[in-house]
Amino acid sequence: DAGVTQSPTHLIKTRGQQVTLRCSPISGHKSVSWYQQVLGQGPQFIFQYYEKEERGRGNFPDRFSARQFPNYSSELNVNALLLGDSALYLCASSLSDPQRGRKAFFGQGTRLTVV
Amino acid sequence: LAKTTQPISMDSYEGQEVNITCSHNNIATNDYITWYQQFPSQGPRFIIQGYKTKVTNEVASLFIPADRKSSTLSLPRVSLSDTAVYYCLVGDLPGDDKIIFGKGTRLHILP
Asked: Domains in chain A and their CATH numbers?
């Protein structure tokens, strides 16, 4: 079975530009979450989607947005990029079923560099 | 969500057993305890999860005392490849898989 896949793996953007990151969850997983990890820190929660509905939002500006598609894949969009947006962006999927486990599976991440 | 406290870093040697303790004094009745491992430039990987007493899998053991205010991740006979950051997480929000990561414990295994 394929794990969580993210694309692209690496990306370089200029300040002020917009970026779209993509995530395909594990087959059967309906919950997708996004995290930002800057160097030396733990991942910070950005968004969670379940069945195409936003279930949670972290403390990030409105420049960050996301959506989930009918096939449960997801996109994270960041507008008006700042240098501080440079980070590893992680996507995680889970069954979100308390009866079947409460663990999330992470992708390899997208390394975004803003110059 | 309960806050966790764990050592910032630890060193050990190959072949040793490593125990990483995590404090979570405000753990709620429905909360589970989960540990993740992360290598540089990779996503975190689930290691083990438990609610009370002891849980063991092929990778690690998790010891949880009766009061559940702390937990200990035990890695038997570590190797150099166990060098990573280990995160202790506490929470249980059915239908909401938001995970709040702390700073984690940087484990460095020496030859």
From this structure: 5-96+106-114 (2.60.40.10)
Work out the widest C-alpha separation in chain B, in whole angstroms: 43
How many structural domains is chain B composed of?
1
Torsion over CA: B49, B64, B58, B87 (sign) = positive
pLDDT digits (tens, 9 = 90+) for B75-102: 999 999 999 999 998 876 544 456 778 8
Q: What are the residue ranges in chain B where pLDDT is below 70?
A: 1-2, 92-98
- Cβ–Cβ below 8 Å for A96 and B95: yes
B59, B96, B98, best to mutate vs chain A, most A CBs in 10 Å: B98
Q: What CATH number is associated with residue B98?
A: 2.60.40.10
Q: Which two tokens stand for residue A23?
A: 């995530």
Q: What are phi and psi of A48, to 5 degrees?
A: -130, 135
Is the Cβ pair B34, A111 closer than 8 Å? no
